[in-house]
Amino acid sequence: MSQIETKTRWSGGLGFEAESRGLKFMMDAKAEAGGKNLGPTPKEVLLASICACSGMDVVSILQKMRLDLQSCDVDAQTETTDTHPAIFTLVRAQYFIKGSNIKPEQAIKAVTLSMTKYCGVTAMVCPTSPVQFEVFLNGEKIHDGKADFTVKEESAK
Prior knowledge:
Helix content: 25-40%
Distance between the termini: 30 Å
Order of helices and strands: EEEHEEHHEE
Number of strands: 7
Low-confidence stretches: none
Mean pLDDT: 95
């Protein structure tokens, strides 16, 4: 079991400075919500965390396949409910993978493994907010999918 720790300190208004492993970043509310817009909101950080966590999985998987990965960009969009607590209604993510020798099935496998087995942030979000994804390889859309951490691998025969 790995321990994660963060310290979050109020910095005035609705702003908070967070620190993890000595690395600091600001979070704040949008100006129209009473903040000073000094950093992303906590929900924006969570959405970015889905992208980064899954992106790290995808990069690691494709590199372990010894493929010529040139770039891997992950974008995401969501809306929140109008009721409290305001949660994500549906997360839509797009994976933009580029590489000269990456086959569609390899890119799909890497993203699908992240979205069904490895991405802890997505696994935590999925029970309340569905996550759908699209995979693009070298500018061409090759797959649509949905995060599902209830899928179990077939046992070896």
